[in-house]
Amino acid sequence: MTTFEDYIKNFNYPSVPAMKISSEEVIEKLPEGNIQLIDIRFKEEYAMWHTGIAKNIPINELPDRLDELDAGKLIVTACPHNIRANIAMHYLVTKGFQVKFLTDGLTGLIANLLGGNARKAYQSTNK
């Protein structure tokens, strides 16, 4: 674990790309089984629509639900655009997780889950 202060002090140019992942990369890497996609939207938002490949842990519940995260996997935080996902990513870094935020958000992921990509993502999470 690291403090947020230490995280900020050690933040540099290579830190920027290291904290991001695109929906294309997530879809490509899902079959490897090394990613845990976390939808950090509030329960009401999740209930209205969700991808089926992400676990919902609302951002305000995240501190109390860390035990639901797989420390052996890359945690990818996601929300519609990436604002809350970015906040959650920074928080989880301070808790010792390997984590990135979904740069194009859940809306970008949905746009990329069409046709064959939906099949690939679905098959990788329903083995």
Which structural traits does this protein have?
127 residues; alpha/beta; Oxidized Rhodanese, domain 1; 5-stranded parallel β-sheet; 7 helices; 14% strand; 5 strands
Kindly describe this structure.
Helix content is 42%, strand content 14%. The protein is of the alpha/beta class and 127 residues long. It has one domain: Oxidized Rhodanese, domain 1, CATH 3.40.250.10. Strands 1-5-4-2-3 form a 5-stranded parallel sheet. The longest helix has 12 residues, at 83-94.
Describe the structure concisely.
The chain contains seven helices and five strands.
How would you characterize the largest beta sheet?
Answer: 5 strands, parallel
What radius of gyration results from the CA coordinates?
Answer: 14 Å
Helix vs. strand class: alpha/beta
Total number of beta strands? 5
CATH superfamily: Rhodanese-like domain
List the secondary-structure elements in sequence, H or E: HHEHEHEEHEHH
Q: Which percent band covers the strand fraction? A: 5-15%
Q: Compute the average pLDDT.
A: 89
C-alpha termini separation = 33 Å
How do the strands and helices of this protein lay out in sequence?
Blueprint: H1 4-9, H2 15-18, E1 20-21, H3 23-29, E2 35-39, H4 43-48, E3 55-56, E4 74-78, H5 83-94, E5 99-102, H6 105-112, H7 116-125
Parallel strand pairs: 1-5, 2-3, 2-4, 4-5
